[in-house]
Specification:
The chain is an alpha/beta fold. The protein has helices at residues 23-38, 62-75, 89-99, 126-132, 151-168, 192-195, 215-218, 234-242, 270-273; strands spanning 2-3, 46-49, 52-56, 80-84, 108-112, 114-116, 141-143, 171-177, 200-204, 209-213, 223-228, 261-266. It contains nine helices and twelve strands. The longest helix has 18 residues, at 151-168.
Amino acid sequence: MTNETNHASRCSPRSNNAAASIRIAMTIGCLKLRQTMAKKSFISIYSTLDSMEFRHTPQSNVAPFLARQIADQLQKGRVVLWLLSGGSGVQVCNETAKLLADSNLSGLYVTISDERYGTVGHTDENMQQLLDAGLSLPGATVYRPLTGSSTTKTTRDFDAWLTLAAKKADYCIALLGIGEDGHTSGIKPHSIAVNSQAAACYYTGEDYQRITTTVSFLSRFDEAVVQAYGKTKRTVVAKLLQDAESSINDFPAGLIRNIPQVTIFSDSNKEEVT
């Protein structure tokens, strides 16, 4: 795992010539990944609503899907930026990383979509929780936002790394959750992260001091894999799927509608959210 201290755009296609030499080696890893994922099957109940696909399926199926999406892009010789998710996303991220173990990850850039400011390794740090759970991505470039610096410098460095990584990337994909209040990433309703034009911004919320990606940055992503499990998430999932007129300021998760390819995983069935 490489830790880089350098900082977010919708990724433009790049020439595949430079990456052609690694494809053969990566094919073996991807074939193993597909064999692993073939053992898991999605529940057949799913529907496509507008540009978003909704899947009623166990949470255990999220990681195999996400790993396949990332591995397919890497196999094509593309540089990929993957945003991790904290909280309920920790397990999914670690399972995804394990499924990518046989892939060549030299073209993969990874960081967290939202971090809680504090000392490096503090109890609520999302990246620390991922590392404690065993996150390992050998060969990938992994960025840890917290460095022990001030909020201003930490935010500036994170913004710069995201911007650079997105420029390098041919494909940007994020694992996102949705909060009961309609937030996604660390973008709380009516926060500065809604209207900021930077890749990352800092603000003090009711719960944490947050350094988070913004609506502007995430809206330029190519793909989002969204997980929303539990009865308490039904209302916000229904709002995302049905209420296209809702204000992003009131309902930040609405930014997900701006992303071209979205797959929503949930334990709610179609009738409960449409």
